[in-house]
From TrEMBL:
Residues noted as binding NAD(+) in the record, renumbered to the chain: 11-16, 36, 89-93, 130-131, 164, 275-278, 345
Descriptive protein name: UDP-glucose 6-dehydrogenase
Keyword field contains Transcription: no
Keyword terms of this UniProt record: NAD, Oxidoreductase
Family indicated by similarity: Belongs to the UDP-glucose/GDP-mannose dehydrogenase family.
Taxonomy of the source species: Eukaryota, Sar, Stramenopiles, Ochrophyta, Bolidophyceae
Organism: Triparma columacea
Active-site residue numbers: C275 (nucleophile)
Length: 469
């Protein structure tokens, strides 16, 4: 079959995979190929067990795979074939050098640009999909401009706003599609081309076009504003626990004001995910770079509040359990950074587990989508907790595939991800099997406090009044 257009996406991760699957589904005349350096990842995309869990994703992939959607490690030949190349690779926070701990490392983006420049034989539109520091497009454009073949590359910024767990819905019905490009005729033509791809299923009123830098900065600002809402309500949760106010009632009361709105006011043990912290740190770095120290400090506070929320939760757990968790079995319900995903990047659960491990608690972790191997990677990568830094790691962490087994004989349950199944557990059965007093610490406000207290549990939930010690 011949296609009208060919798209290649570099990076088959949480963003590249679902985004390209939805483009392929809505544009049968476009050939879409997702490439990655990681052959295991590509094999998984070509198998019955996709590398990421996302509701609805499997159906979309299976409906297009082999027709107009392909996954491949033939990076160079696929780039050569493409009219539009998306860059959707990971840009983790730098751990070393200038901007360490703040700036995003764009080496993967730069590498992609170098590969494109090397293998292209025709003009191409290069689209930044990865969240990148402002003016990355400039770096990409300069690398591309160094090609000695006289080719012309247009660089566009088209940040992704999907949230994990609802990615397919977000992609099918985006609140907006943002496309930034140069104000030159070439830039405007490239924008028009990309607009025409999205126009296959997105109403044109929802496609926003801007200059390159506004587009790049908007992504950081959107995530900073969202994270700020979570930190704001979390700061109030601490006050609620001390005063007798109830954070859910406050969310409802303030969220009814249309100027505030009801969404993203769910108090929690802390936000996680690959974007919020990284993007705010990027914003902070950007402000600092321009000498805007007050602005930097303002946004940095959102992260500090999140760190405080995570450590506050563990401290309260330990203090309620008679100031010691040593040797106690604690059932950890949920490890993913939110429900409906197996993603663990920056998950608050890992921070709570680390702090409990330092107390030498025995943790039995249950998460319907996260495997032990992934938990260990997260501990090591984000928290530097591994068998060298914590020789008892293998002993302190047991991973369970049965939630009731995780709770059997436990002194406490900590709910750290808001999986729906945690609402409907047989808590009578769980209570009978636990050590007494049986504690429940709900970091997500998913359990029915009243019912659990009637069963006999001592329940402490985030942002709900905690009785005085
Ligand atoms: C976020 C943005 O929402 C998305 O637009 C962007 O493209 C990527 O970053 P994501 O990180 O996938 O998406 O999930 P999101 O739903 O935003 O949740 C982030 C974290 O905040 C999670 O840990 C979640 O549990 C937490 N959260 C969210 C709360 O604690 N309370 C809330 O009310 C909302
Ligand atoms: P995101 O959440 O932004 O999608 P992921 O880490 O899930 O991030 O995915 C990024 C993917 O990009 C990984 O599968 C990684 O192997 C891939 N990748 C990184 N650098 C390159 C590159 N130069 N060429 C192709 N793929 C790359």
């Amino acid at each position: 079959m011949s296609f009208d257009l060919s798209i290649c996406c570099m990076g088959a991760g949480y963003v590249g995979g679902p985004t390209m699957a939805v483009i392929a589904k809505n544009c049968p005349n476009i050939r879409v190929c997702v490439v990655d350096l990681n052959a295991k990842q590509i094999d998984a995309w070509n198998s019955a067990e996709l590398p990421i869990y996302e509701p609805g994703l499997k159906e979309v992939v299976e409906s297009c795979r082999g027709k107009n959607l392909f996954f491949s490690t033939s990076i160079e030949s696929e780039i050569a074939l493409a009219d539009i190349v998306f860059i959707s690779v990971n840009t983790p926070t730098k751990t070393q050098g200038i901007g360490a701990g703040r700036a995003a490392n764009i080496k993967n983006c730069e590498l992609c640009a170098r590969t494109i420049a090397k293998v292209a034989t025709t003009n191409k539109i290069v689209v930044e999909k990865s969240t990148v520091p402002v003016r990355t497009a400039d770096a990409v454009r300069r690398v591309l401009a160094c090609n000695d073949k006289g080719l012309e590359f247009q660089v566009l910024s088209n940040p992704e706003f999907l949230a994990e767990g609802t990615a397919i819905d977000d992609l099918e019905k985006p609140s907006r599609v943002l496309i930034g490009g140069e104000e030159t005729p070439g830039g405007q033509a490239a924008i028009a081309k990309l607009v025409s791809v999205y126009a296959n299923w997105v109403p044109s009123s929802q496609i926003i076009t801007t200059n390159l830098w506004s587009s790049e900065l908007s992504k950081l600002v959107a995530n900073a504003f969202l994270a700020q809402r979570v930190s704001s309500i979390n700061s109030i949760s601490a006050l609620c626990e001390s005063t007798g106010a109830d954070v859910s009632e406050i969310s409802r009361a303030i969220g009814s004001d249309p100027r505030i709105g009801p969404r993203f006011l769910q108090s929690s043990v802390g936000f996680g995910g690959s974007c919020f912290q990284k993007d705010i740190l990027n914003l902070v770095y950007l402000c600092e770079t321009f000498g805007l120290d007050e602005c930097a400090e303002y946004w940095h506070q959102v992260i500090k509040m999140n760190d405080y929320q995570k450590s506050r939760f563990t401290q309260k757990m330990v203090s309620r359990m008679f100031n010691t968790a040593t040797g106690k079995k604690i059932a950890i319900l949920g490890f993913a950074f939110k429900k409906d995903t197996g993603d663990t990047r920056e998950t608050a659960s890992a921070f709570v587990c680390r702090d409990l491990m330092q107390e030498k608690a025995r943790l039995h972790v249950y998460d319907p989508q996260v495997k032990r191997e992934q938990m260990m990677i997260e501990f090591d990568y984000t928290l530097n907790v591994n068998t060298t830094t914590e020789p008892d790691l293998e002993k302190l962490i047991t991973t369970e595939t049965d939630v009731y087994k995780a709770c059997e004989g436990a002194h406490a349950i900590a709910v750290l991800t808001e999986w729906d199944e945690f609402k409907g557990l047989d808590y009578e059965r769980i209570y009978k099997g636990m050590s007494k007093p049986a504690f429940v610490f709900d970091g997500r406000n998913v359990v029915d406090i009243k019912t659990l207290r009637e069963i006999g549990f001592e329940v402490y939930a985030i942002g709900k009044p905690w009785p005085k010690e």
